[in-house]
Amino acid sequence: MTENQNIDAVAAAAAAASRPFARTSPRDRGAALVAVADALDATAPELIDIAMRETGLAQARLTGELRRTSWQLRLFADTIVDGAYLDARIDDADPEYVIGPRPDLRRMLEPVGPVLNFAASNFPFAFSVAGGDSAAALAAGCPVVVKAHSGHPELSRRTAEVVAGALREAGMPEGVFQLISGQQNGVDLLKDERIRAGAFTGSTHVGRMLADIAASREVPIPFYGELGSVNPVYATYADDALLDGFVASVSGSAGQLCTKPGFLFVPDGVDLNAVSGAAASVDEHRLLNPGIGRAFSQRRDDVLGADGVTVLSQGEVRVDDAGQTYATPTVVTVDVDTLTQNREALLEESFGPLSVIVRYADRAALPALHTELFPGNLTSTLHARAEELADESLAPLVEALAETSGRVLFGGWPTGVSVTPAMQHGGPYPATTSDATSVGTAAITRFLRGVSYQGAPQALLPAPLQDANPWDVPQTRSAAGRSTTWGSFAR
Amino acid sequence: MTENQNIDAVAAAAAAASRPFARTSPRDRGAALVAVADALDATAPELIDIAMRETGLAQARLTGELRRTSWQLRLFADTIVDGAYLDARIDDADPEYVIGPRPDLRRMLEPVGPVLNFAASNFPFAFSVAGGDSAAALAAGCPVVVKAHSGHPELSRRTAEVVAGALREAGMPEGVFQLISGQQNGVDLLKDERIRAGAFTGSTHVGRMLADIAASREVPIPFYGELGSVNPVYATYADDALLDGFVASVSGSAGQLCTKPGFLFVPDGVDLNAVSGAAASVDEHRLLNPGIGRAFSQRRDDVLGADGVTVLSQGEVRVDDAGQTYATPTVVTVDVDTLTQNREALLEESFGPLSVIVRYADRAALPALHTELFPGNLTSTLHARAEELADESLAPLVEALAETSGRVLFGGWPTGVSVTPAMQHGGPYPATTSDATSVGTAAITRFLRGVSYQGAPQALLPAPLQDANPWDVPQTRSAAGRSTTWGSFAR
């Protein structure tokens, strides 16, 4: 599959596929997702080879990521197949309805139409061509156009070829999956009226620019952007095991993860010596591309040069002849006052292997400090000893974390993001541009909208709303005669 | 209750109420909603008196509207009380999870925080201070600030007094319900970082302006605006009963309803004589305020003056000494070509008792025509004889209506909007600024966001996610050991 750079033709093909794709049953669409998963698994060695070359990520990491990507498709297939995601609701006609006779009303969720998905650089499988946003939109029944990330063009083309081929063989309509490349093409297509939703994973700067374009269209569309996150971690203690885990989380995939812990808060006076040893044992890792390398190098200089910063691990940054950047972890420490007084230099996300350990004197001050410094993050984490977790003294901090984050962890590190029904990968801005999640089965709903049918004859109702229920989906029925008892629980 | 015009103090009070209100149980919050309903019912005669004076709407209409408003609160109370709306999900920890060991993950929906609700003029109860957006946000657990509509200031103050008083007596926190007035105050508060979502019912012009403000904040927030809708009706026949029903729907509440049918498509050559008789029997009705009167008069002049328009009922427009406008229904007819050639004059919404009957020659051309002319509406309606509805010849038209509307009616008139689980009152832009519904129980979800807790000790989990489940809410459990079978249905 070569990208089609005729944006008008791409939009036309997506729009043409929209209605036939929306008509497919959850079972047929689910089987098509499984076919895509099978095809990706079958092509794994070739895809991983290309990915290693284009991204500098390690084989083990890429193997796990591709496995996650194909299983994600299988999970989404399983999620839609019973039709519960359609939220089919049937209100029986009720002549005695208290506020006036109620007609027969039936509501379900239907696909919004063509979705434009801007792929990320840092997960060439899981957040790229065949990644979560594509899987969710296809599961919902929406044609997908992926704007390839320039960091892995060959992988994008080959992956799109595999995906589109599998969908075609599974009987899905032509035009249901397309690939484009180039920033201007992405912007132009985002402005096209035939595109009905956008999805994005990347930087705050670019994400906000695209979100603003989506919002300022003549017909605005929802834009699900995952932007920036620094994922603060609060520890009531710090031993060597905790610090080792921290360094591993900061340096995994060279710190190029949206859930990398950018800040670790520890009590004043704890021994931080283990950090330098742990950091020194981390091998040099290539950053994804020269642009990310330059940006990281600059952010690192800013942090190292900020007033009041103490270096725990200086790390190294090296640029090879091809312009690629290689780095080892940099970890610094500051006290709370230094952090609050140097916000500009210190608070911004550092995309790469760098983190800041913040020493605090007053645990009781943490909830307010967190709310002030970190109003929107994908995750926040609390490390405390079992006896502290058993009572509720930490409740105010947990409440502050929950108000400002999509996911709150107790122990562990945020860089593991499982794909499950209960995952939330999306938090208050700037973590994401909406409160929705881009990981886990709840991500599918982003690409659906409610439609009600009033007084419809059976023959003209969509299958999930028919009395005969040919797809055997769960239907929630609101029986007649119940409106007189509303609120009576409160008597 | 007098409005507080100190916007900073209003925002501070709403923010202060946010956490204690979020902590209330669905049962306590539901009981508070029922208390509000009881208080409104107890004050009905006084409220209706003020409303009649300030809006010119008839006593019977206002009595029904207030009844609907208090029952809506009871329905929402009933909806939240069992906690199903929290969508509590629990993933058991799974060491054998296929993509890597899965931690214990628990997700629920939590309130987004303070909501600013811009009240509408045309429903002084159901879409105003105590209306659907306020009820939905309170049900979700979000503090509410209502920006009063200038069309019924005294009613707004008195209603807010009743609502706030009932919430206080029910033990809800101070600051959970506040009223402001004045356009600039509304805009200033919408820009305040402590406001986390906006809701609006009104004109496309003002709604879009506010939506743009919400989207361009440093921290953008969701804005649920209900803007403009012309609610086309397609009839395969037209007899006197149908035309009488049409005129009644166009002229009810002087046509000042967001679901008023602005266009009725009928086959060329049907007898439209019944229209003038039906329209002539409609009494003069005051429009809501002088501004709406002037705008209606101008729109009516534009329509009457457009090329190719034939008048079926001229109607009358009269302005009294106080500047209030009184009108009787105006109905005109055009053919399809006239409509498509005079879009500027004819397609815009006329807020008042005016509608356009469009004569079509080719029924097969209707789906494409509809999609082109009416890309976003709250409702669309099909009137066809029983034998036509029994087969699928009308399916393409129904599909086009469903793609472009929130609610598709088969017979009946869109101006009745019941409040039920399966109602969808929200459609593609410009009908609404999001795909969400502002009527019915699905409206509550607009003011919720997902939060996941990973590896949390029971003592620090919100009640709905605890194993002990003290609120007895439905919990969806994803058991360990199932991930190996994902997608196996497709084998």
Task: Kindly describe this structure.
2 copies of one chain form a homodimer. With about 500 residues, chain A is α/β, with parallel strands linked by helices. Chain A folds into 2 domains: about 230 residues, Aldehyde Dehydrogenase, Chain A, domain 1 (3-Layer(aba) Sandwich), CATH 3.40.605.10; about 180 residues, 3-Layer(aba) Sandwich (Aldehyde Dehydrogenase, Chain A, domain 2). In chain A, about 35% of the residues lie in helices and about 20% in strands. Chain A has 16 helices and 19 strands. In chain A, the strands form 4 sheets. Chain A has a 7-stranded mixed sheet, with helices on both faces. A 5-stranded parallel sheet of chain A has the order 5-4-3-6-7, with helices on both faces. A 4-stranded mixed sheet of chain A has the order 18-2-1-19, with no helix packed on it. In chain A, helix 4 runs parallel beside helix 5, helix 9 runs parallel beside helix 10 and helix 14 packs parallel to helix 16. Chain A is globular, with a radius of gyration of 25 Å. The first copy, chain A, starts with 6 loop residues before the first helix and ends in a 13-residue tail after the last strand. At the A-B interface, helix 2, helix 4, strand 1, strand 2 and helix 8 of A face helix 2, helix 4, strand 1, strand 2 and helix 8 of B.
What layout of secondary structure does this protein have?
The structure is a homodimer of 491-residue chains.
Chain A: H1 7-23, H2 26-42, H3 44-55, H4 59-81, E1 88-91, E2 105-111, E3 115-118, H5 132-140, E4 144-147, H6 153-169, E5 177-180, H7 183-190, E6 197-201, H8 204-216, E7 223-226, E8 233-235, H9 240-251, E9 263-267, H10 274-280, E10 285-286, H11 290-305, E11 310-313, E12 317-319, E13 325-327, E14 330-335, H12 336-341, H13 343-346, E15 354-360, H14 366-373, E16 377-383, H15 386-390, H16 395-404, E17 405-410, E18 448-454, E19 475-478
Parallel strand pairs in A: 1-19, 3-4, 3-6, 4-5, 6-7, 8-9, 8-16, 9-15, 14-15, 16-17
Antiparallel strand pairs in A: 1-2, 2-18, 10-13, 11-14, 12-13
